[in-house]
Amino acid sequence: MQNIDSYVEKNKDRFINELIELLKIPSVSADSAFKKDVLKTADEVKKSLEKAGCDHVEICETEGYPIVYGEKIIDKNLPTVLVYGHYDVQPADPIELWTSPPFEPVIKKTELHPEGAIYARGACDDKGQMYMHVKAMEFMTSTNQLPCNVKFMIEGEEEVGSVNLGKFVKENHEKLKNDVILISDTGMISKETPSITTGLRGLSYVEVEVTGPNRDLHSGLYGGAVANPINVLTKMIAALHDENNHITIPGFYDKVENLSDEERAQMAKAPFSLEDYKKALDIDDVYGEKGYTTNERNSIRPTLDVNGIWGGYIGEGAKTVIASKAFAKISMRLVPHQDWEEITQLFKKHFESLAPKGVKVLVKPHHGGQGYVTPIDSIGYQAASKAYEETFGKTPIPQRSGGSIPIVSLFEQELKSKTILMGFGLDSDAIHSPNEHFGIWNYLKGIATIPLFYKHFTELSKK
Amino acid sequence: MQNIDSYVEKNKDRFINELIELLKIPSVSADSAFKKDVLKTADEVKKSLEKAGCDHVEICETEGYPIVYGEKIIDKNLPTVLVYGHYDVQPADPIELWTSPPFEPVIKKTELHPEGAIYARGACDDKGQMYMHVKAMEFMTSTNQLPCNVKFMIEGEEEVGSVNLGKFVKENHEKLKNDVILISDTGMISKETPSITTGLRGLSYVEVEVTGPNRDLHSGLYGGAVANPINVLTKMIAALHDENNHITIPGFYDKVENLSDEERAQMAKAPFSLEDYKKALDIDDVYGEKGYTTNERNSIRPTLDVNGIWGGYIGEGAKTVIASKAFAKISMRLVPHQDWEEITQLFKKHFESLAPKGVKVLVKPHHGGQGYVTPIDSIGYQAASKAYEETFGKTPIPQRSGGSIPIVSLFEQELKSKTILMGFGLDSDAIHSPNEHFGIWNYLKGIATIPLFYKHFTELSKK
Lengths: 463, 463
Known about the structure:
2 copies of one chain form a homodimer.
Chain A: H1 4-23, H2 35-51, E1 56-60, E2 67-72, E3 80-86, E4 106-108, E5 117-119, H3 127-142, E6 149-155, H4 163-171, E7 180-183, E8 195-200, E9 202-211, E10 217-218, H5 219-222, H6 229-238, H7 261-268, H8 274-281, H9 294-297, E11 303-312, E12 321-322, E13 325-334, H10 340-353, E14 360-369, E15 372-373, H11 379-392, E16 397-400, H12 407-415, E17 419-421, E18 437-439, H13 440-462
Parallel strand pairs in A: 3-6, 3-7, 7-17, 8-16
Antiparallel strand pairs in A: 1-2, 2-6, 4-5, 5-18, 8-15, 9-13, 9-14, 10-12, 11-13
Helix pairs in contact in A: 1-3, 1-13, 3-13, 4-12, 11-13
């Protein structure tokens, strides 16, 4: 394609400023207090797709937050790429740990990002990466180089389980018909080592509630005589892992695919420094399932983590109380072949069985999704690989991610097409954490690389 | 003594209204947001002591909240009673579980309290019970029936460890010189079965902090590969009790006094219905240390309870995060001979030893106090017993409480006098819980009983 680099160079300040404006809107889908902002973000995304040259853009209402749909069909006989992304973001807390306000984007230069990085919630996940596709589209339409048909589907509920997107996809097979799905909501190994994500973990997210006495009690008068819901909850959670950090839920590992030694050897070739990893997190050692490396633990193995816990008095000072209730949010990352709904039921059954007499337990399934794997011999993967080769000068490494995009497996099931995960983020971007950021180098590199995927995918499709 | 009953009957509405005014001030010592209110409460207590006939009342400043001191010395050759109480209260949360605002006192009639009960934070613990002594003083002075000298010492930091009162007592031996200390900050078995508290448990209160990675992490990218501080904290807390609910801290039980079978048989005689107990708390079973009854578990045995726990995302919806830190507030109730500072050190050492590699642990000792036992053959106990006999028509039962008034053992050590615990509260008063209340019958009964203690104590002292 012609003049991508010069176009990006000429427009980069505008590309950055437009993203910054989008990042100023706190589109936190998990907290209803931000409802207006989430809706406002959908409108802004709609406008940006129109500017980028889509012929037909609409806000598709759902029972939750709307889906922004846009398309440009240039020739029914040409292949169609469906771009998926999300405009909602994770909650910003703990807010006090941000060095600048999460919704007042600022550009800071760092050792890793001498060109500067944009600090804001959603900078990388996923507003920044989603917006790369909008700008790539703008480039292709404004320079008359769009080689195929394009459809955009940008949702506002990815961070809360994409429940309504699932319904939307099931009800709009024709509208969403495509030859490949393209998503940038993952990362790459490093700026020097591009990679394409070929696997995602599934997810089961639950909330548990342990109830003891019908009211908070004085710990002196009742301490030691009644079940303390917090003590009980800690015992129940502790029992979910054995001394080797294997998960103890009966049947949990039954469908887990065990990789061959050869596959594990291939994985081990990806550049990784355990020392740098520990240093970056300021930990004296890693921790996890016995018999697996760090990169295996967070990609090909299922895990169980408490994401939040609360109960009793958590204010300043002391309160000698036995709480009536204790709560925890627990999520399990699943690997391909583990069915998230089945795992959720196995968890529920097992967790309830751990409750001693004297307490009542409630397990509330929250949301989830299946894992996903894409083959590297597909046209889509090959097109992505060639695109990276042109812009990075290196063949990207196929890599399994530990993260989840629950909707991806549903896309395949409903739309019968494969998803290509072209992620330009880095582990250090602190997505879901305070001080999330996205390197300007990564942002512009994404905008320059994406159009090449369209070119190669169209060419390979003709063969 | 003359006309106690008629005096109480004539003035009961005023007694109730004056207490209600005092309860309107949110004197929460644990939360600095209430500082002004705590100080205002001290002023109100000072005024009430002056009205009650104390000759000399003063606000004694400390490094924390002030101590209100008042006295009436009628004859140096007569015995002196030192009354202790506290004007600070526990935090009100969880506020949403109160059926009426905690600092807007209301009188409600209940099955147990057909005469009505005052619902407010501090109604029983300890504003209501402390105020019984102020009104009893008023009766004795206004009817010229005060039989001995009286000193009042009302503090504002009982709910946060009485640290500054300890210093005050050590520095004011002469000022506080007395023959017996009288406190109403405990309960009795029931309205039909009066009891006197002869034992209190000690307390060690700590806060623990577990730190894993230096920032919150995405649970997909890091889940299973680094120590999750919340999972680790639950494992550490769970390990503090074994399968028989014995506390696992090495040396924890070394100094615990084991009661004889005869003493335990005596205790077992106190009227108690396990069914009513479970029904009142809406639990299907009790829970605690193997080999002990419910009444033993919450009185003669030491215990360990988590009073609060928090970490990660505890807001609405879901956040797939691994928290950088997890926290818990943990308190241990101790029995006589266990030294709270020694136990705190044993806890610290053991808890730190439970931490796996990959996390850092911080144990912050908060406050504590020693347990206490008073003999039933003392003049003070006998005087109290006779007082109850006159107003309840029954000999009160000596009873060990599971609660702690850390300062009591310090009184004995510093002032060389015994403390008599004349409590008029009931287990059902929900102290430290939402909907704390104090029966009007109990309140007035206390006012009518206390003067008789002065009478009998003075008479028995002459013998």
